[in-house]
Specification:
The protein is α/β, with parallel strands linked by helices. The chain has one domain: 3-Layer(aba) Sandwich (Rossmann fold), CATH 3.40.50. It is built from 5 helices and 8 strands, in the order E-H-E-H-E-E-E-H-E-H-E-H-E.
Length: 141
């Protein structure tokens, strides 16, 4: 797999990858990237199988990961990915309201968790916080 640890050129947009089986959610992130000069879309995947294949060729600077996909569990996938790329920032998303999800995301090494019901403004805030090296966990009280 390519190495994502090479230094980034200052002011170069971060390359975002999105793994979500819902086209509308991938579209929201595509719109977010188009409106943010600090981001560019590296790739999108609708399944874990597709994401694994894309990661083999191209490691992004930032990963957005759905919790539940048709071919597996996002939490387990993040553990796998972060074992190889421990500095890769991950924002996990879910439509489920399971109160354990934010804590589970944090335990897996994700830098954030946000529900899909969040406003676009909150989503932008979450991505921005993580881009700057922070964390964002909604519902992790």
């Amino acid at each position: 797999m390519p190495d994502s640890t090479s230094p980034k050129i200052q002011n170069e947009p971060q390359r975002l990858a999105v793994v979500d089986d819902h086209a509308i959610i991938r579209g929201v992130f595509l719109t977010l990237v188009e409106d943010d000069s600090d981001l560019t879309m590296a790739w999108m995947a609708a399944s874990l199988t597709e994401a694994r294949a894309k990661l083999e060729r191209d490691v992004p600077d930032f990963l957005v990961m759905d919790v539940e996909l048709p071919d597996g569990n996002g939490f387990e996938f993040i553990l796998e990915v972060l074992e190889q790329f421990p500095r890769l920032p991950v924002l996990m998303v879910s439509a489920q309201t399971d109160k354990s999800y934010p804590k589970r995301a944090k335990a897996c090494g994700a830098k954030g968790f946000i529900g899909k019901e969040a406003s676009l403004e909150r989503l932008v805030d979450a991505v921005g916080a993580i881009q700057k090296g922070g964390v964002w966990f909604t519902g992790a009280d």
